[in-house]
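Encode chain A's predicted structure.
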Amino acid sequence: MTITRKTAAPKEISREDIARWEARRPALKAINDATMDKSHGFAITVSECVRLCGSEADFRKIAAHWKTSVLWVLGITVEYEHKSKAYVFVTAAHQLTTRHARVMASSEKKHRQEWQRLGVMRNADLTDHERALRLFAMDQHAQVAGKIEAAREHHRIALTRPESLPRV
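Encoded structure for chain A:
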């Protein structure tokens, strides 16, 4: 029996899955019908989303399903933009540069924070097994954060010097 997942990849979503979601959630069908023919760079305000769905509560219930639908059908990430109060269909350039850097930085920060949280735990409060487990977890978080930091640096170099990328 395997305790861990075999892969970190999310489950694929098919058009049939989306059709089942739409049958149960009419608001999702309405917003999908209005946005599935759009492309990169398209923006839709929250007020327009609420209008399409019928109510703010309905939109909040289906927002994650809508973003997942757009991702799997069109291959476009949908991101909320605070300054315009709109959902934007992310461009490929933005996805590969700005968004990637932000996601990696956030991930590294989370691992460093967890390493610090584990480090400030008092030994007196822990059993021998818990102390060993804490050290093991701290080491894992430090290694992952270091790998993410290295990946961020490689990404930064690749953005400034495209010739540094391996040939495909």
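The beta strands are 43-45, 78-81, 86-89.
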